[in-house]
């Protein structure tokens, strides 16, 4: 994604405001004001709030795609922690995921197709761990359960912490990585329990 | 909760409309119209949309509290299926949970205190299963993990199915009960695997 400086500024400001107050409260006028530009100038770059939200979803997906880029191979817990950092950075998207999904067809379509891809990626990581002997040989039902539940945790653990009134902060969210390890633990080979 | 017939009608109609279209789209005028009453009459019973949403949350909590009422003791899968039926009945509350939580302090407060209680109830069920020998003796970390993850699944499995583009229906949601069984399975005593 190649974005102009102005577009980057609009997205950075919108992300901050949406994370603070949610997309229902924040209008394009609020965003224009916080960017010190006229509503007309903002409109030239993004036609409406839905376009800004969709562009932020695309940015998050692009970031998530690069999470496993590293000189050294990452452990599962390092990958999980990076995932939760990304969730925290784009936390309004996770708080409002289902509402945004039902409100905008373009958002829903990109969301569904990306999550189908993520599920295959998680399954690939599990199969890699199985081949390397970290996981005990597992049947299709177990791998299906683990991959869905890992993706489920990545998407909704942050919202869960919020509605159960647990303190939310980036450090706190990363505790989700430990929940993922606990989930996988019974399926690890002897000597590889986390 | 003792409600007048009119209040019951308002809540039943609101639930149907919120489940169909979400709380953002549905106004008190829509609800009044669907109830064949004037906005003034609706206002006499509920001051605003937030009061209606809060009353629906209270109704769901009251229903959930009675889920384990049964002549015969319920199995864990029966309890889970009843939970998911209740989630499906009040699905707008689960779709919009985090957004409603951040929008209204009274909602947030009732939500947090109820979920703290639910967590203790789930822990109680697990400890009962341990005492009866269905679960292997488990350490505090495992029971903490299992109780949080079971509650987490109850709350967010339905939203997860929606955003991953899987068909959603009451039957489909009940598949969540099988995910719960899979989760608990490695912790069951020999011969009690599900």
Can you lay out the helices and strands and say which pair or pack?
Two copies of one chain form a homodimer.
Chain A: H1 5-21, H2 28-34, H3 39-45, H4 49-65, H5 76-89, H6 91-95, H7 97-103, H8 105-131, H9 140-163, H10 170-184
Helix pairs in contact in A: 1-4, 2-3, 4-8, 5-10, 7-8, 8-9, 9-10
Structure description:
The structure is a homodimer of 194-residue chains. In chain A, helix 4 (49-65) runs parallel beside helix 8 (105-131), helix 7 (97-103) packs across helix 8 and helix 9 (140-163) runs antiparallel to helix 10 (170-184). Chain A has 194 residues and is mostly helical. Chain A is built from ten helices and no strands. The model of chain A has no long low-confidence stretch (mean pLDDT 91). Chain A folds into two domains: 1-47, Orthogonal Bundle (Arc Repressor Mutant, subunit A); 55-187, Tetracycline Repressor, domain 2, CATH 1.10.357.10. At the A-B interface, helix 7, helix 8, helix 9 and helix 10 of A face helix 7, helix 8, helix 9 and helix 10 of B.
């Amino acid at each position: 994604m190649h974005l102009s400086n102005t577009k980057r500024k609009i997205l950075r400001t919108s992300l901050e405001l949406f994370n603070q107050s949610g997309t229902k409260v924040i209008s394009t006028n609020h965003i224009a004001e916080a960017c010190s530009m006229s509503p007309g100038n903002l409109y030239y770059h993004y036609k409406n709030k839905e376009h800004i939200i969709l562009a932020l979803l695309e940015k998050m997906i692009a970031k998530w795609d690069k999470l496993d880029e590293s000189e050294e191979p990452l452990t599962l817990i390092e990958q999980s922690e990076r995932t939760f950092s990304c969730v925290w950075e784009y936390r309004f998207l996770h708080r409002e995921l289902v509402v945004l999904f039902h409100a905008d067809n373009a958002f829903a379509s990109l969301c569904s197709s990306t999550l189908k891809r993520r599920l295959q990626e998680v399954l690939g990581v599990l199969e890699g761990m199985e081949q390397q002997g970290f996981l005990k040989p597992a049947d299709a039902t177990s791998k299906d359960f683990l991959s869905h539940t890992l993706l489920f945790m990545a998407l909704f653990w942050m919202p869960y912490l919020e509605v159960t009134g647990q303190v939310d902060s980036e450090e706190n969210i990363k505790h989700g990585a430990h929940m993922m390890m606990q989930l996988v633990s019974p399926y690890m080979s002897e000597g590889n329990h986390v």
